[in-house]
Amino acid sequence: MSLCLAAVVGGFTACHDDYDLDDPGNYPSWLGQSIYDELKKPNPDHLTGTFTNYLRLIDDLGYTETLERTGSKTVFPANDEAFARFFANNSWGVSKYEDLSEAQKKLLLYNSMLDNAILVEMLSNVPDDQTNISSGIAMKHQTGVNIIDTITHFYGATQLPRNNSYWEKFYNRGIDLVMDATRPMMVHFTAEQLTANNITTMGANSDFAVVTGTEYDDQANTAYIFRNRIINPDVTCKNGYIHQMEDLIVPPGNLAEMLRTNGESNIFSRMLDRFSAPFYNVQVTNNYNDWALVNGYALKDSVFEKRYFSSRSQGGTSLTTDPDGKTLSSDELLPFDPGWNQYYPDRTNSLSDVAAMFVPTDAAMKQYFLPGGSGAFLIDQYGAKPNNEENLMENIDSIPKNIVQAFVSMLMKPQFLSTVPSKFDNVMDDSQDPLGITLGDLNRTEDGKYDVKIANNGVAYMTNKVFAPNRYVAVSAPALLSDNMRVMNWGIQDQSNLNLNFYAYLLAMDANYAFFIPTDKAFDAYYVDPVYLRRSPRVLHFYYRKDRSPYIFCSAFDYDPSTGTVGRDSTSVSISNFRSQFIDILNTHTVILEPGEKLGSNHYYKTKNGGGIYVSGGTVGSTVAGGSQIDGININGAQSTVIPSAKITKVYNQKNGQSFALDHVVQMPMKSVYSTLASTSQFSEFYNLCSEDRVQLGLFAGISNRTSNTQPIAPIRQFTTFIDAGGYHGLDQDVSYFSGYNYTVYAPDNTAMNKAFQQGLPSWDKVREVAAPWLDEETGVYEADTTEQCK
């Protein structure tokens, strides 16, 4: 066997063939001992202090031989002084080495070990391809932890998520659980990575100082692991490298676990855990039992994995199905899984970035939710008990999950590198406006440092105030916060079915909206489907079911426009077949006002989709009417019993306008331009001018009625105002030169038309008089004039 080892130390490169590095006589002069021997007899020129406790971890876990012989490892040990500091102050409840359980020993050793030999300056390297390397990219590496070493038995309700039905069956019997089934990561900050990502390093308020709690020393060849400094890097051994740490690396866990256990974010963690569930993991169960059989331990029936419903979870895929196989709605999903150990943002290298969260401390949450706080209205509306500190947790549990989702999601950011303090101005809220966070909003620890916590998959900025989502104060908020506006809220929040981001549109904080929200009961009064009025008139009944995806459903009933009668039998309508109608409803109920304008200062308003509505005022009891309701009649002229005008039942003053609860849906016109002109006597002269059959006159004038591949519409059609709509949908006659747009027709009444005729506007009768000499009375066709005079 031939082995070639290349290393660079102090500019010296060595490469030797046929070296058996386990033979002490073959060690190069520049090469240290094995990792184990170097720690056992540390060279004071390279390492500081003694490593008795760390060596005990190695010995107790049977790793001695591995670290004594050749291999490829990188270890990040701490000396005995660091262990003493850990035993004096830790959250594990241990005061000496003998107090450590085997599981804790494994976490301490394997979280400080990488499976490759890596110099500090190479920690940020990632391969571009098989031959090239890019520097400054990576900020984390996979540790040596085995997932089965992280299995923990939770004994009851006090240790498991509350207000979460997925966990209730384990409240009495307990559960064997891993916090994630992917291996934990070691997060690091190197000079190369800081420079490449524009992370500032100068001064006490630099990005680096805020995040790590220590000012950067650009003279030191070092790096940080989490918030822990490497004090002696790149100690070269025959089987890898030693990077001595200032303090013991205590595994922080993932973001979700760190927030659950740090003691400062219990309220936020409880809200976050409402989106978690235990999933049986057959692979972890089998791996553990294989190990248990070999080592004489009891087998486990089932090992579960704690996961979070989210749009981005393990492997970069979404987790939208619960343990029972039920598909969840979008407002039950977090932006990403805070429990995924190996989380990385979409469209990035898997080692290049982690997540970030702006997490209010418990003190900040109490100030927000308790009486006098800006979030007290949520407790007042949903709380099960009086709003005081004793009842706060239970009252927060009573807030509907979709409302909690809006709160939590806005504080979860997918990219840490985009949220460092120097880039706080670019951190956006849920309406894509600046969040407005500053260093003054960060909590401080007892030693005066910024309270920033680094997990194995992200960074948590602990804040001393709550940044609430604009969804709570936008014109869409009443639909989100009410339990009787679920149909409209579905349309606002849905993105996948309607292919619409209407919620984002309504979050524009610089706009001034009048947003009308029909209640669920309003939809029970039906919506006349304008698409089907021509051949098969029908009404639509939209309704919401919280227990069944996709949650919004629609039934169609036959409708007699002449009497307003609705049939008794219904048919189900799929989302694809009512998508355009529901989008039209959303647009019809949205009015954009001028800055500072209040609804009711005028009576007629143009809606978002270009339609017109009438509003009698902007107060409770005022009328809101679409075209059909303004007319008060249906398409055949009979008084309608299906489409009464909507009444405002409640007014909400919001940050970007006003919202109005309605008792009926605003119904847009059911009459075409053609039928309106034809049925209104005062427009009869204008109607006659538009509707005259003038094809023969057009042909006589030389206008072609022929079509071709390059001209599919005959030119004569451009001179015909009304044409049959044709097909199954539509109303009656279309205006031929109107496209799919909302037009305004200014129709002169008969008085105006007669005045125009008197002033020289030719009527069709006058035109026919001019053309009469060429009319063939028998055929009704105008003959061509072949006289020399005409030529």
Features:
elongated, seven-stranded mixed beta sheet, alpha+beta, disordered N terminus, 5 domains, FAS1 domain, 791 residues
Topology diagram in text:
Layout: E1 7-9, E2 12-14, H1 35-40, H2 52-60, H3 64-68, E3 73-75, H4 80-88, H5 102-110, E4 113-114, E5 126-127, E6 133-134, E7 140-142, E8 152-154, E9 175-178, E10 185-189, H6 191-196, H7 207-212, E11 224-225, E12 228-237, E13 240-245, H8 255-261, H9 266-272, E14 276-280, H10 282-295, E15 304-308, E16 355-360, H11 362-369, H12 376-382, H13 392-397, H14 401-410, E17 412-413, E18 452-454, E19 458-463, H15 477-481, H16 486-493, H17 502-505, E20 513-518, H18 520-523, E21 527-528, E22 538-544, E23 552-560, E24 565-572, H19 575-588, E25 590-592, E26 604-606, E27 612-615, E28 623-625, H20 627-631, E29 646-654, E30 657-662, H21 673-679, H22 684-691, H23 695-700, E31 722-724, E32 733-735, H24 750-758, H25 764-771, E33 775-776, E34 781-782
Helix pairs in contact: 2-5, 8-9
